[in-house]
């Protein structure tokens, strides 16, 4: 789906303000699907940071996508949109300020960062929500009566599948995906050499090839993994647009990763995922999917872990390559044959 500013329909226009990170946006998808099912006749627009528009283009629920640019340019775009309701998924002041400046009549969201006066309806999630997965926070805003969350649904365009197939070429199968990056820095990054060792152990059992993936900021970690694996490896760090990245993940037999946006993307496409967690709480932000495993040693878990946390780094270092390789083998054995 391309970004759109055409609002020709006379149906009620609804705005959903997206979270700013890939993983958070993906965790919001089940709630958005419920909103679409409950309000099938609304004209739905998602407002997101520019780098997230390709991701939202893989979702069927919104008819329109709009990029967050400057404050006044975005406000003018919202004014032209004629929205009746804005659902605010981030907790930031700015996410509430933009619909407020655009005089959207209904502005619904969590209390967030001192922004109550900018909202017409402050959502107070049920007490149990704070102990459940973060996806339920988004459901409290978009579908407050939900009893269950559907699996997130992603639609891969043919162009993305073709791009992935071209990049993979004739690599021997099965493909072992490795994503050593994480936007939150060292507190969420298992050492690259451990990823390389785990991938070597898996390939010794499964055969096939190793595909290392990540954004431009992950280039150093991806290069270290590729060098550590040795032969039979393809390093695609920074070389893949987001839709093609999803298509690459869909072709992997298993993916090894950190707690990251890539983890959530792999889970959504349905690929078996083994995710390494240090101190962050997988019951809150873990991958959503039946074919996912979390490897974690620490009994202490926290939702907010500083980027430079020495305790988190130590918790990650306690996890061995054998731990991750064994989890991957068990996951594959429980799910039937791999591609």
Q: Oligomeric status of the shown chains?
A: single chain
CATH class of the largest domain: Alpha Beta
The structural class is alpha/beta
Strand content: 15-25%
User: Count the strands?
Assistant: 12
Mean pLDDT: 93
Q: Could you name the CATH topology of the largest domain? A: Rossmann fold
Individual helix count:
13
How many strands, what sense, and barrel or not for the largest sheet? Answer: 6 strands, parallel
Termini separation comes to 29 Å
Percentage of residues assigned to helices: 25-40%
Q: What Rg is obtained from the alpha carbons, in whole angstroms?
A: 20 Å
Per CATH, which architecture of the largest domain? 3-Layer(aba) Sandwich
Principal-axis shape equals globular
- SSE string, helices as H and strands as E: EHEHEHEHEEHHEHEHEHEHEHEHH
Runs with pLDDT <50, length 5+?
1-10
Number of domains: 2
Strand order of the largest sheet: 3-2-1-4-5-6
Secondary-structure blueprint of this entry?
Elements lengths: L12 E5 L4 H17 L4 E6 L4 H4 L7 E4 L3 H11 L3 E4 L4 H9 L4 E5 L10 E3 L11 H8 L15 H11 L6 E5 L12 H15 L2 E4 L6 H11 L3 E3 L6 H9 L3 E5 L2 H9 L3 E4 L5 H4 L6 E4 L14 H8 L3 H14 L5
Parallel strand pairs: 1-2, 1-4, 2-3, 4-5, 5-6, 7-8, 7-10, 8-9, 10-11, 11-12
Helix pairs in contact: 1-5, 1-10, 6-9, 7-8, 7-13
Please describe what this structure looks like.
This protein has 339 residues and is α/β, with parallel strands linked by helices. The chain folds into two domains: 13-142, Glycogen Phosphorylase B (Rossmann fold, 3-Layer(aba) Sandwich); 158-334, Rossmann fold, CATH 3.40.50.2000. Helices cover 38% and strands 15% of the residues. The protein has helices spanning 22-38, 53-56, 71-81, 93-101, 135-142, 158-168, 192-206, 219-229, 242-250, 261-269, 282-285, 310-317, 321-334; strands spanning 13-17, 43-48, 64-67, 85-88, 106-110, 121-123, 175-179, 209-212, 233-235, 254-258, 273-276, 292-295. The strands form two sheets. Strands 3-2-1-4-5-6 form a six-stranded parallel β-sheet. Strands 9-8-7-10-11-12 form a six-stranded parallel β-sheet, sandwiched between helices. It is globular. The model is unreliable at 1-10 (pLDDT under 50).
């Amino acid at each position: 789906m391309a970004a759109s500013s055409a609002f020709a329909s006379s149906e009620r226009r609804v705005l959903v303000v997206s979270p700013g990170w890939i993983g958070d946006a993906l965790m919001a998808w089940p709630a958005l699907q419920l909103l679409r099912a409950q309000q099938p006749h609304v004209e739905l627009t998602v407002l997101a940071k520019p780098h997230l528009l390709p991701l939202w283009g893989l979702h069927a629920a919104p008819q329109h996508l709009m990029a967050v640019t400057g404050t006044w340019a975005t406000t003018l775009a919202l004014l032209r949109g004629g929205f009746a309701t804005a659902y605010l998924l981030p907790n930031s002041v700015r996410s509430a300020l933009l619909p407020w400046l655009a005089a959207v009549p209904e502005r619904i969201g969590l209390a967030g960062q001192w922004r109550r006066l900018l909202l017409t309806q402050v959502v107070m999630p049920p007490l149990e929500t704070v102990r459940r997965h973060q996806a339920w926070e988004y459901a409290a805003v978009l579908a407050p009566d939900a009893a269950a969350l559907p699996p997130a649904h992603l639609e891969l365009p043919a162009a993305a599948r073709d791009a992935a197939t071209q990049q993979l070429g004739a690599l021997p199968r099965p493909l072992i995906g490795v994503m050593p990056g994480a936007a939150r820095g060292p507190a969420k990054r298992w050492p690259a050499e451990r990823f390389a060792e785990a991938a070597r152990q898996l390939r010794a059992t499964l055969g096939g090839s190793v595909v290392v993936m990540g954004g431009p900021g992950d280039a150093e970690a991806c290069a270290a993994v590729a060098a550590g694996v040795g032969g039979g490896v393809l390093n695609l760090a920074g070389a893949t647009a987001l839709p093609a990245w999803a298509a690459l993940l869909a072709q992997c037999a298993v993916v090894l990763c950190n707690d990251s946006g890539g983890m959530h993307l792999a889970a959504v496409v349905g690929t078996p995922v083994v995710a390494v967690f240090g101190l962050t709480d997988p019951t809150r932000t873990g991958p959503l999917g039946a074919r996912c495993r979390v490897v974690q040693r620490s009994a202490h878990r926290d939702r907010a872990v500083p980027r430079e946390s020495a305790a988190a780094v130590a918790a990650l270092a306690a996890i061995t390559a054998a731990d991750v390789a064994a989890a991957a083998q068990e996951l594959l054995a429980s799910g039937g044959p791999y591609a």
